[in-house]
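Exam revision sheet. Question 4 asks you to relate a sequence to its structure. Input first:
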Amino acid sequence: MTKAGKASARAVQHANILLLADANADNRMDKEIAAVLHVALRTVERIRMWCVTEGIERALHRKPSLYEAFDAKTANRLAKRIDLHFTPKHGSWLNITEIELRALTGQCLDRRIATLKELRKQVTVRQHQRNKEVRAVDWRFTTEDARIKLKHLYPILQT
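Answer key, C-alpha cells:
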C-alpha cells in the first residue's frame, strides 16, 4: 500500500491527521487527534498550520505524492477531498483579517469586558453584524500605482 521509509510514514501520518480533522471539523480538537494517532499535539498543530500557510505551490506538489503513498483508488479518493485555496506569499487574506480585527477592536474590544462569556457574546454579535453587511475590501493600491511605486522591482528591457 505504501513505500517503506520515513517519508512515506510521514505522508500517511499527515493524511490521517488531515482526514480526522476534516471528518468532524467543528468538534474535533487538535489534542483529541493527537491522542488518537499517538502523536505530539505540536505535530497536529504544525500540519494544520502548514495546510493554511504554505499556499498552492506546496499543496500542488503534495497532491501527486498521494499516488506514491497510496494505491490509485485510495489516492484518487483522497485527492478529491483536498480543496486547494491559494494563499499568496504576502497574503492579501492576512490583510483582510487584520482589517476585520481592527473593526472588531473598534466596535467591541475598546472597553473592559468583565467575563469571558460576555466577551464571546459581544464578539458573536459583531461577527453576525459584519457577516450580514457582506462588505468587500476596497483595494486602493491599483496595478498602475504598483508599477510606479515598485518600478525598481521591474526588469529593465533592452529594445
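Marking note for examiners. The mean pLDDT is 71.
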